[in-house]
Every structure is written in structure tokens, then in C-alpha cells.
Design goal:
This protein has about 100 residues and is of the alpha+beta class. Helices cover about 25% and strands about 35% of the residues. Strands 2-5-1-6 form a 4-stranded antiparallel β-sheet, with helices on one face. The protein has a two-stranded antiparallel ribbon with strand order 3-4.
Length: about 100
């Protein structure tokens, strides 16, 4: 089994209490469906900095990260299938899937 990171892009946090409850229920169902394959549930993140040789930009880059999760899967195909059920997709967001390479 290999660990993969899901990097979430886009989506938007709800502001209405009823919508917050609905979104949280969808995420909880998503994590429960993956069971013990969730290594680190991660969570949402704040605006990132983009650090380059030219300096630091406080704009999150071209495609700002909105959150992450670490999962364990037998293959990248399995990880992609797991990511396909992510609630952020219904909010217009995307999930970037990458293998975590042990050094």
C-alpha cells in the first residue's frame, strides 16, 4: 500500500448554518466511506504564499490550495477512484492526486 496526498483546489466555504451542516455531513460521509484508508484527514487551509527565487507573493499562486487529505491505496488508480467521490467536486473544485514517495 502506498500513501497519496489529495490536494484540494477551489470550492467555497458555505456561510449559511444549514449549508455548513450539509457540507460537513457530506465530508464526514466521504471520510467514513474511505474508512481506515484515511491516513491524515487533513482539512481546509488558509491562503498560501508562493515563494520563488524572485521573492514571496501572498496570492496563493495560479491555483491556490484549499485543503488536503492523505490516504493509503494499492495504486494511483485506486486513489483516483477515491478522489472521484470527494464533495469538493460538487462545489466546482478539483482534487489533485499525487503519490507520496518515501525517501
Amino acid at each position: 500500500m502506498t500513501d497519496f496526498i489529495f490536494v484540494y483546489h477551489g470550492g467555497k466555504p458555505p456561510s449559511d448554518p444549514a449549508e455548513i451542516e450539509k457540507v460537513m455531513a457530506a465530508w464526514n460521509d466521504y471520510y467514513q466511506g474511505m474508512g481506515d484508508k484515511v491516513v491524515n484527514g487533513g482539512g481546509p487551509v488558509g491562503m498560501s504564499s508562493m515563494v520563488t527565487a524572485k521573492g514571496v507573493a501572498e496570492n496563493g499562486g495560479a491555483n491556490p490550495v484549499s485543503g488536503f487529505t492523505v490516504v493509503r491505496a494499492a495504486s494511483k488508480a485506486e486513489a483516483n477512484k477515491m478522489a472521484a467521490g470527494c464533495p469538493i467536486l460538487s462545489e466546482g473544485g478539483s482534487v489533485e492526486v499525487a503519490e507520496i514517495i518515501e525517501m
